[in-house]
Amino acid sequence: MKRTKRMLIVLLTSFSIFALLTFLTFSSYGQNITSQKNYILNKNNKTVQNTLNIYGTDLNTRKI
After folding, report:
1. What is the pLDDT of residues 22-64, one digit of tens each?
2. How many independent structural domains does the chain possess?
3. In a domain, 53, yes or no
């Protein structure tokens, strides 16, 4: 009984660590996609190539 309890604790701990890492990985996923979409929109809008995109904020943007 003691061994199964220890195994259960180890399984629950490892699963919770895995779930936390997965959540932290994919919680910033949407921000990166938004940034990429804004970059593509600016590129299609004939913007100069040296555009630095940080979470949807454009720096050094000039229209041609």
Report:
1. 887 776 655 555 555 555 555 555 554 445 555 555 555 555 4
2. 1
3. yes
On whether residue 64 sits in a domain, the answer given is no
- Please state the pTM of the whole predicted model: 0.41
Q: What is the DSSP-derived secondary structure letter of residue 42?
A: H
Q: Can you give the residue range of the structural domain that contains 27?
A: 2-59
Instruction: Tokens 């979470």: give the residue.
Output: 55
Report yes or no: 60 and 42 within 8 Å, Cβ to Cβ.
no
Q: Give the bridge partners for 34, in sequence order.
A: none
Q: Tell me whether residue 21 is in a domain.
A: yes
pLDDT digits (tens, 9 = 90+) for 34-44: 555 555 555 55
Contact between 33 and 55 under an 8 Å Cβ cutoff? The reply is: no
